[in-house]
Design brief:
Strand content: 15-25%
Number of helices: 5
Structural class: alpha+beta
Helix content: 40-55%
Number of strands: 7
Order of helices and strands: HHEEHEHEEEEH
Largest sheet: 7 strands, antiparallel
Radius of gyration: 20 Å
Distance between the termini: 55 Å
Length: 171
């Protein structure tokens, strides 16, 4: 799993290069990558994915059937349902440009949820025609949980200090 956005970008570049090879080499290359990563055709239909996608999504994507994303359901950070045709991968394919700086929540078929940062990136041939797209999904669930716990601890310390100052002033 990538530990930074720079790591994720490097893995996306490796996957994009692998797309230009044959299907067998592409599948092998994707499976060697340590992060959930998948490829679509120019219309957004999933053509390849690695085993890490199954672990992240909690389901096995259906090649040549599923469109835009390997996840079952997607939500915004505010909890609003995000239709797959509005997800970052769909936007990247439709606009033919990479999308960065997004974060979303994926719901698995078992109801569990994870937070992730997608890296949808269109792939172009030598003539400048978009031939597909690649997307890496960086799981940030534990990182965000740790950030929330640190923020809560900080609020508790401020409250404890405020109560302590009030009691000191009252005596």
């Amino acid at each position: 799993m990538p530990h930074s956005f720079q790591d994720a970008e490097a893995l996306v570049a490796i996957a994009a290069q692998a797309v230009t090879g044959d299907a067998v080499r592409l599948s092998q290359a994707l499976d060697e990558l340590p992060a959930p990563i998948y490829v679509t055709d120019p219309e957004g239909v999933i053509t390849h994915f690695n085993r890490a996608c199954i672990a992240l999504a909690g389901r096995t994507p259906v090649v040549r059937h599923d469109k835009w994303c390997v996840t079952w359901k997607i939500y915004t950070l505010e909890g609003e349902r995000l239709p797959h045709d509005h997800c970052p991968m769909a936007v990247a394919v439709q606009r033919e440009c990479p999308i960065r700086g997004e974060e979303a929540i994926a719901e698995r078929p078992d109801g569990s949820r994870i937070r992730f940062v997608p890296f949808p990136t269109p792939i172009f041939d030598r003539d400048g025609e978009m031939v597909g797209a690649v997307n890496l999904l960086m799981d940030v669930t534990e990182q965000r949980r740790a950030e929330a716990l640190r923020a809560e601890a900080s609020r508790c310390r401020r409250l404890a200090n405020a109560i302590g100052h009030t009691e000191t002033l009252a005596t």
